[in-house]
């Protein structure tokens, strides 16, 4: 019965409820933007809620076991502050990923009032960055939502956005008698010490825009960045256990390194000349709809279709005319985003060349 109370308390917490609602909101925003830009919903699968539940529960169990072994604890007032700040970070997710900021804010407040829990904050930061790396670990290209915008020279450009987040149920300890705050939680006694188990809704998120890289290359960069920050945070936690006075310094250092990585990535992005830009020497593939002939042909966003069924193409009308040359099969010559040439072919639906599953820049009227 006591375990049911602890588990049930997680599902009624505002942060978890806001997270569920926000997952559906992101899904509807994605479909709306795709219909606005390309007149169709490229991927109707609600993978946002599936990932939210699957990753949240699976990794929540793992970090809970880790937390119990290590003995991670937070005072109840810090938990309230964390959840309030995290709800704000969640609301900002469509614009920018601030999921680590509540922990940095909590660290500054702890330094001013309770410096002894700063090592715990560093450990939580390490877990946050570790989970961020896991969120982008095996991301499929169909989860990237394209948006169309005007380039400087009048040619249209595609950019790709991804947003991934989960709220992980992490079991922690709350020291002291908290019956006046959470009377439904069982109070445990160990000698002169009193504490309660509590399931903390722990947010980790990752988001970004891809303009000049392949999705695989961009995610590899994000993953390495998060892994480096996670290692630094865990090392800082270990050092702060022996030299507690350095905790606030390394906390601010981590924040500076994180900002520095963002600036460095932006500078690298500006130096690149590759864009997902409209071209006159073929047809730029903007997106591939899942479970279509194009998906089976291993076409990818950024590819340029140079030749279809033996005929050179430079616009959408020429492409569909070339598809009509063979009502059952499609043979394509393609230049990849990395400027490699490849040949791909596959069957198409009878009398339905428009169902190939390739999303292109919309024709101007």
Automatic annotation (TrEMBL):
Q: What is this protein called?
A: PDZ domain-containing protein
Q: Record keywords: Membrane included?
A: yes
The keyword DNA-binding appears for this protein: no
Query: Where on the tree of life does the source sit, at the highest rank?
Result: Bacteria
| Pfam entry (one) | PDZ_6
Question: Which ranges does the record mark as transmembrane?
Answer: 6-29, 57-76, 157-178, 184-205, 226-243
**Keywords recorded for this protein, A-Z:** Membrane, Transmembrane, Transmembrane helix
Q: Which residues form the PDZ domain?
A: 273-338
List, alphabetically, the InterPro entries matched.
PDZ, PDZ_6, PDZ_sf
